Amino acid sequence: MEFVNLLYQIDSELDHSDVQSLKFLCIDLLSSKKLSKIESGRELFDQLMQNGFIDKKNHFLLAELLYIIGQHCLLKVLDYNKVSVQELLPTHGKTTLYRRMLFEISENVTTEDLKDIMFLLEIKKKQKESRTFLDLLSYLEKKEIISEDNLKVLEGVFEKVSPDVLKIIDNYKNEKAAQQSQGIPEPNINRIEPEDLKTPLSIQALSHLEKQWPNDDTRTESVREHIQLVRGEAEREDDNIGNLENKIHMLRLNQHARPGTSAEDDLYAMNSTHRGYCLIISNLDFMHSSSRQGTEKDEEELRNVFKWLGLDVETHNEQSAENIHTCMKDFASRDHSERDCFVCCIMTHGESGMILGNDNVTIPINDIITYFIPDNCPTLCGKPKLFFIQACQGKKSQDSYPIQDDASVSPRKYVIKIPTDADLLIGMSTVDGYYSYRHVKYGTWYIQAVCKNLAEMVPRGEDILSILTKVNNDVSLKEDQEGNRKQMPQPTYTLRKKLIFPAPSTPYTPKKP
Predict the structure, then answer these.
(1) Coil, strand or helix at 438
(2) Which of 349, 377, 381, 451 is catalytic?
(3) What DSSP element (H or E) covers 41?
């Protein structure tokens, strides 16, 4: 019973794309007929249990699958972590090198890449099913266009569309050759049918858990019939693909059809009593740099807006680099279990990829973010973590009053690389290499635009990325008194779902200057 509850907990954290990824990784384990009927993590776990791949004593396969799709924060539910899975994968892994290689490629294919790939591949009959790159890979495998020993079509396509992906294929070939030379066998993936099991465990057999999942059999059955119809048409297509390089045809994609999901599946939970912490760090005076006049206005607006949104705001002023590290460790070590999210706003001088303490000691922005990844802050695992950084990322000549910049030292190239862990958003006030402007009386262009658009767009139900897109536009239209200095913010994110702050019951009323 306890194991089934763990599976239920894992399923509740998976979205539609996660389930599709897991299904693809299980193609070598379960029959295509069974996989075609699966619409949820619960149903997939059921099949893996009934076929003898996981049970309460041996569930490494599930940890392996979660590791591959990047759901590292869920590994702790199964008493694993990234390091332990990596160590056991060579000897206990059930997925093949080939399957993992294909999935790794899919993670590097953008929407535009997919359109180009679809354009380059000739398929005689137009497909009506909405397709992802994983769908396309499954189709190519089914038609025996690609296999673990025949990747010429993929190599030919990616040579044109994205040559970097060829490195993934080369690595696979080298690793496979090394395994063959060492006599290492492929994972044992012999299936065990349900009738061979004495007492197959089934999540669906537990009536008390069934009540926790909505009964939407009608909708699910309709979706299944549609998928089976489309798959049947695809399987009846002519196997003669022709010359893929000379004959081209565009496949139509329906990006909006997402069977098996609801609006709630695509949203981060925002229903806790305590919304979350909002940490504000604001440096005005520096040991070896000019003061940041106007940051008081930014601090005030951020504090008011995020209090209005239900967060517990804490402000720390005039922080040295060491104090900033201490502050980050403190917030990362707190218990966020009963909170929905975490927000961190930093306003200081900066340079490329760095922020400065008021002692002019630099801190890589990467280091700030890393404090809050699941390994270091497990109670924020699966929850959105938002960082708003108001600091220059490059150096130009000083602007005249009333516009100032937030740079202080000569820039050096230090590119911000967002960690691979999910649920992060980094809102940079400017792109790398450029000034971020601040009015000595009214505050910075970026922070003021963030606060203004949060106040206006949250009550309309807009998600955070839509809000930041509006911020980008608003800031891009601003200019200094001479009309020749501009600024462009840059959000970077690994959010898995839409983040919509619940609208407060009372409208936001900014304080008059």
Answers:
(1) strand
(2) 349
(3) helix 41-50
Is 90 exceeded by the pLDDT of residue 236?
no
In b/e form, how buried is each residue of 431-450, taking b as 16+ CB within 10 angstroms?
ebebbbbbbeeebbbbbbbb
Sign, CA dihedral 52-55-59-65, equals: positive
Residues, the chain, total?
513
Longest dimension (CA), the chain: 81
177-235 pLDDT, tens digit per residue, is 888 887 766 675 544 333 333 334 444 433 333 334 344 444 344 434 443 443 444 33
Complete DSSP assignment for 236-263:
TS-S----TTT---PPP--TT--TT--G
From 345, 377, 381, 392, active-site residue: 392
The most confident of the ranges 310-319, 370-379, 394-403 is 310-319
275-493: CATH topology: Rossmann fold (3.40.50)
Other C-beta atoms lying within 10 Å of the C-beta of residue 467: 23
pLDDT in tens, 47-93: 999 999 999 889 999 999 999 998 888 888 898 988 899 999 888 99
Residue with tokens 């699941």: 374
Which two three-digit tokens encode residue 102? 């294909």
Radius of gyration of the chain (CA): 26
- pTM comes to 0.54
In 27-120, DSSP assigns E strands to: none
Residue 226 designated active-site: no
Question: Cα separation of 132 and 138, whole Å?
Answer: 10
CB atoms near residue 474 (< 10 Å)? 17
Please say whether the beta carbons of 449 and 474 come within 8 A.
Answer: yes
Partnered with residue 281 across adjacent β-strands are 316, 346
Question: Contact, 458 vs 106, CB < 8 A?
Answer: no
Amino acid symbol at 488: M
Do 374 and 73 touch, CB atoms closer than 8 A? yes
Q: Could you give the CA distance from residue 17 to residue 219 in angstroms, rounded to a whole number?
A: 19
Phi, psi of 170 (to 5 degrees): -60, -40
CB 362 within 8 Å of CB 379: no
* Mode of pairing for the β-strands spanning 385-390 and 339-347: parallel
Question: Residue 304 — pLDDT band, cuts 50, 70, 90?
Answer: very high
pLDDT, residue 401, reads 40
For the chain, residues classed under CATH 3.40.50.1460 are: 275-493
**Beta-bridge partner residues of 277:** 312, 342
Active site residue 345: no
